[in-house]
C-alpha cells in the first residue's frame, strides 16, 4: 500500500528556525538531513504507530 509523503514542521536544533520536512509515513526511520536554513546536519527519528506519526530531531553529533 502506498502512503503519500507527509509534510511536518520541526525546529532545527542548531539555528532554532522552523523548517518543513517531508516524512515517509510507511515505516519508522532514523536518518540525517541538512537544515534548509543553516545547512547543518539534523538527526531525524520518525515513529509510526498505525495512523499516528511522531517526529523527533536532534543535533547529529549529540544523537538521541
Largest β-sheet summary: 3 strands, antiparallel
Strand arrangement within the widest β-sheet reads 3-4-5
Query: How would you classify the helix and strand content by structural class?
Result: mainly beta
Low-confidence stretches: none
Cα(first) to Cα(last) distance is 30 Å
Account of the protein in words:
It is globular, with a radius of gyration of 12 Å. A hairpin with a 6-residue loop joins strand 3 and strand 4 (41-49). 5% of the residues are buried. The strands form 2 sheets. It has a 3-stranded antiparallel β-sheet, with no helix packed on it. A two-stranded antiparallel sheet has the order 1-2. Helices cover 0% and strands 55% of the residues. With 64 residues, it is mainly β.
Give a quick rundown of the structure.
It is built from no helices and 5 strands. With 64 residues, the chain is mainly β.
Set out the fold topology:
Blueprint: E1 6-11, E2 18-23, E3 29-34, E4 41-49, E5 52-59
Antiparallel strand pairs: 1-2, 3-4, 4-5
Could you list some keywords that capture this structure?
64 residues; mainly beta; 3-stranded antiparallel sheet; two-stranded antiparallel sheet
